[in-house]
């Protein structure tokens, strides 16, 4: 399950990178911003992946006497990773719903602040 999420993430990054590379009329500044965003997304993914790995390892692996996971440990790790991925997907879907409204409020607040400043400052 973790591998599937990892591969899906990389396929999305590769597709985005390929689109940027294929476009000949892309502003270099926009391309740099897209690369920075992709790098931030990748860094966030690795941070979440590392946290999930550490949490599931601590919760599920109790005996380090064997090279392979025991069936119980393997099942626990699969369950833990699946649960963590599902929680992350739910949080992202809620964020994607709420974020545009938050941005709208932020823009409105900034516009009100700019309007107040323009009224207060004599021209």
UniProtKB/TrEMBL annotation:
Keywords: Chaperone, Disulfide bond, Membrane, Metal-binding, Mitochondrion, Mitochondrion inner membrane, Protein transport, Translocation, Transport, Zinc. Residues 38-96 form the Tim10-like domain. It is found in: Mitochondrion inner membrane. SUPFAM superfamilies: Tim10-like. It is a peripheral membrane protein. GO terms for molecular function: metal ion binding. Signal peptide: none annotated. Belongs to the small Tim family. PANTHER family: MITOCHONDRIAL IMPORT INNER MEMBRANE TRANSLOCASE SUBUNIT TIM9B. The twin CX3C motif contains 4 conserved Cys residues that form 2 disulfide bonds in the mitochondrial intermembrane space. Mitochondrial intermembrane chaperone that participates in the import and insertion of some multi-pass transmembrane proteins into the mitochondrial inner membrane. Also required for the transfer of beta-barrel precursors from the TOM complex to the sorting and assembly machinery (SAM complex) of the outer membrane. Acts as a chaperone-like protein that protects the hydrophobic precursors from aggregation and guide them through the mitochondrial intermembrane space. Heterohexamer. This is Mitochondrial import inner membrane translocase subunit.
